[in-house]
Amino acid sequence: MNFVFLGPPGAGKGTLAKQASEKLKVPHISTGDLFREAIQKGTPLGKEVQSILSRGDLVPDGLTIQLVRERIDQEDCRNGFILDGFPRTIPQAEALQTFAPPTQVINFLLSEEEIIKRLSGRRSCPQCGAIYHIAFNPPRIDELCDSCSARLITRKDDTIEAIKNRLGVYNSQTVPLIAFYEKRGILSNIDASPSAVEVLESFLSLIQKLKKR
Ligand code: ADP
Ligand code: ZN
After folding, report:
1. Residue among 58, 69, 108, 114 to mutate when testing ligand 1 (max atoms within 8 A of CB)
2. What is the CATH number of domain 2-212?
3. pTM for the full model?
4. What are phi and psi of 115, to 5 degrees?
5. How crowded is residue 202: how many other Cβ atoms within 10 Å of its Cβ?
6. Probe ligand 1: pick from 4, 29, 59, max atoms within 8 Å of CB?
7. What is the Å distance from ligand 1's center to 61 Cα?
8. Tens digits of residue pLDDT in 141-190
9. Which of 20, 63, 67, 186 has the most neighbouring CB atoms within 10 Å?
10. 8: exposed, middle or buried (C-beta count within 10 Å: 0-12, 13-18, 19+)?
11. What is residue 210's predicted lDDT score, i.e. its pLDDT?
12. Shortest-distance atom of ligand 1 to CA 13
């Protein structure tokens, strides 16, 4: 199955997608991770998108679509994938229909108040990509990654200014995708407010139901 994870920043798409990808044995493709990796490596793409990401703006559609297309063309995506953070605009969704139409789109629901709480305490591992929260999901040792011991960082776009901008961008550019996929009959909603474990369970039971249809 080709999955798209849709929803506001901070809904926990990345955390869930990592776990679901292990369970379902399909790759997790996060455009945010791909861009951050390019920035860290200092590639031409990374240099081009660095300031865009730190402001919380969107990378131009052309660049983003090209990146995803190349990724999905790889062997490991033959049996499906989980797209996290793509598409984020109508032109991106239209492009995806032409080269890898999603089977199911999962729309994660979370209130704006909760989003801000989650994003403002988020810490990320620069080495393995693990995601933590200072209050809701702290690492065992302060500021260090549980799995690789690297020092955790606060993402540049997890400042209050950038968070507000990302929410504005989400509301104007990404929310229209809900209707886009609803119209195609492939959208399911999941409440993202419970713990990560519970959200994973709702996702897995949803898939079981879909398979039986
Ligand atoms: P979050 O879901 O927490 O906002 P992501 O890691 O998915 O974070 O994305 C981080 C940033 O990467 C976005 O704010 C944007 O600048 C860029 N980005 C990621 N996916 C896309 C996309 N599909 N189109 C344009 N820009 C993107
Ligand atoms: Zn780590």
Report:
1. 58
2. 3.40.50.300
3. 0.90
4. -60, -50
5. 17
6. 59
7. 11
8. 999 999 999 999 998 889 888 999 999 999 999 999 999 999 999 999 99
9. 20
10. buried
11. 87
12. 2
Select the highest-mean-pLDDT range: 69-73, 126-130, 194-198: 69-73
Residue with tokens 């869930």: 16
Cβ of 58 less than 6 Å from ligand 1: yes
pLDDT in tens, 14-47: 999 999 999 999 999 999 999 999 999 999 999 9
Measured from the Cα of 8, ligand 1's closest atom is: 2
Query: Hey, where are the domains in the chain?
Result: 2-212
For ligand 1, say whether the CB of 52 is within 6 Å of any of its atoms: yes
pLDDT of amino acid 212? 85
Which residue in 20, 18, 116, 24 sits closest to 32, CA to CA?
Answer: 18
Average pLDDT, the chain: 95
